[in-house]
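Bumping with the actual sequence this time:
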Amino acid sequence: MTDSSTANIIVIGGGAAGLMAAGQAATAGARVLLLERMKRPGLKIGISGKGRCNLTNKAELPAFIEHFGRNGRFLRQAFNQFFVRELIDFFARQGLAVVTERGGRVFPENGKALEVVKILKHRLTKKGVSIITSARVEQLLATNDRIIGVQSGNSIYRCTAAILTTGGASYPATGSSGDGYRLAAELGHRIVQPRPALVPLETAGNLAAGLAGLHLRNIGIRLLINGKRVGRFFGELVFMKYGISGPVTLTMSLQVVDALRRGDQAAVILDLKPALDEHKLDARLRRDFEKRCHEQLTSVLRGLLPRELIPVCLRETEINGSLQAGVITSKQRKKLRHWLKNFRLEISGYRGFDEAIVTAGGVDLREVDPRTMQSKLINGLYFAGELLDLQGDTGGYNLQAAFSTGWLAGRSAAESAGE
């Protein structure tokens, strides 16, 4: 076993939180070593936002925190010190301009996630951070409840502080293998059960396979658990060969995952005409059927539905599409109206960590000081990023949390190491 001492702070994991933490600690004057499991850092950043990197969101602080659910309040301390404006200014100083798109989402102006990685890595080089890649950490070393070093392979690296930023378990091909949970647990930390979040859902039967590729925009969705409505959503849904994805699906996915893990039943009800109430929709159908009374129902429905959904509608309402619109009865019209407002899909499962954008669960927040990101159990041990029991909605929220907690952990560790 080789014993070396190259730094007083060791950052474990080179994702968004780790790169920010290492840079901030070095900026504060610490000697920093970054250990990255993969051949190069920043792999998950490089594929984020479909390769465009949704850096953050322009939502105001209270609304931003709400996107993390009940655990969101933990982030207030970090956000008060390094939030959206500070992040945008940080990248501006590095020469990266940003643009704000629908829903307040902020992206690099050039649309290149790899440029974000390049900037973060270049900053570390300028600050003198040592980087060792292909370095899997086997163990965190502590004595008398204080971090003293890190074991990686046959090497032991001595330090006065370690920042654990290994990410969750989602997209394991990018290095998020879940190692951080084991390392934290070995030092006594409680781990809230990790599970996929912001993940596509599987639906029962073969209906989705026949609709694969269909995008439904501006639709209403009601989520049912054991027949009881537990949430209402509005936005875009995408059919996949196995089920559904898209922004709305991802947003409600954790509720579904947790329900299915409990053995509950889950379903979604699609409102394909959310701008029309039952009365207005009935008037629309009557008007269309009277105006185009000699046309087949199939033809008239093309003005109401995407082509792919018409056979599904006719099959589930049990109406013959070759009938002329003028002969459709009030009972049949009621069936159509009901289906357009209540297209039901039974949820049978969810996709795995390899398709989940983030991981729910992680290091219990009750054991971490939100003012510093330091462990309440082990002095000199800090946490940041997805490893924590924090998960936000899609839209730039999770990446901002990683940058903010990484910034705070890096600064806090440097201040502690300098004392």
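The tokens above came from a reply further down the thread. The mean pLDDT is 95.
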